[in-house]
Amino acid sequence: MNLSRFISQRIQKTKSESFTSTVVKVGIASIAIGLAVMIISFAILVGYKQAIKDKLFSLSSHIQVSKITLNQSYEETPMPIKTNFYNNYRQTSKIRHVQAVGNKAGMLKSSEELAGIIIKGVGKDYDWQTFSQNLIEGKRITFADTSFSNEVIISKRIATRLKIKLSDDVLIYFIQNPPRVRKVKVVGIYETGLEEFDKNHIIGDLALVQKMNEWDNNTCGHYEIFLKNFDDLDETTAVVTNEINQDMRATKITDMFPAIFDWLSLLDKNILIVLGLILVVACFNMISVLLVMMMERTPMIGMLKALGSDNTQIRKIFVFNGLNIILKGILYGNLIGIGLGLIQYYFKVIPLDPENYYISYVPIEWDWFIIMLLNVATVLLILAVITIPTLIVSKMRVVEALKFKE
């Protein structure tokens, strides 16, 4: 049997009320708490970023295709729906769905209030499954077979401002020449928490937008393209650009909302700084634990040297002890971190203010590769650091070590 490991195991089995035993518990606790905090931090970070992205995608898309124009207003330049790209997009493996929509500005009037809005006209190809996460009351639009549907879905913010309830009839005034007005019925209320959408966007029938703009039923304002994987955004945008008509352009969502994505990138930097500080604290705690352990075992070190053990063998004794502490801390850290994360994941016990954070609870998203990486990085880093205090063994003289009083 390996002598260093044998002595290390004997030390671990020693029932002692010494100061070392308390310090060892502190070391295990520091590693466990540090790893648990890192696991929870990454789970929240990944979950929060995914939740914000999902909200963006639910009312927008990964890529938008529109006509190339100098027009900067909400009145879109018409483009055909049944293009070669639209008819054959399923041949592009990384695209999940494409839908034709059209935006038009107007004024929404209730019995008491008036507000400017942008109606997003959607058709029967609209991805309601993606949007449904935002629907807090009512139902989706029922499309008419021969004419346009008079049903709309408005945001909770607009409903509160204009004092509108489900099933209320409201008027939409379209400012054009000649001006037009249409009565519509509120069948649903949504909420994303994103001010860019909630303050003025409503969902209606694309056929209504086509009617108001005097477009035919093969005309829309733009395409919305959804990908199977967000990581393929740049590559797929390049593919789409090559496949659409020459008078069209493809715009990534990261270019449409740069401020939001810059903010999400900033979160990554902040969390890395926090995690770095946690690891530094855990490393210093382990160094302190080993130093105390070695000071208390100084007579043993002197005796082992007197019996012919070299510095490397003695150092391994304390490295094995340190590894034992690390593994216990890792075990407890995973149990605490994953356990607390699962509680929040299933029961959502920690709420958030949607006015400030865009969502109503702390989101959790599991990335098991990152969790595994955190475990491995923690073990390797702390194990590398704890070899530093063991160097003190080589500085100890046999005579002085044997004279040391516990």
UniProtKB/TrEMBL annotation:
> Per UniProt, which keywords does this protein have?
Cell membrane, Membrane, Transmembrane, Transmembrane helix
The UniProt record lists the ABC3 transporter permease C-terminal domain at 273-396
The MacB-like periplasmic core domain is annotated at 29-211
Q: Which residues span the membrane?
A: 21-48, 271-295, 325-347, 367-393
Please give, as recorded in its UniProt entry, the membrane topology of this protein. Multi-pass membrane protein
What subcellular locations does the record give? Answer: Cell membrane
Family, as annotated: Belongs to the ABC-4 integral membrane protein family. LolC/E subfamily.
Could you tell me what this protein is called? ABC transporter permease
Please name the source species: Emticicia soli
- Lineage of the native species? Bacteria, Pseudomonadati, Bacteroidota, Cytophagia, Cytophagales
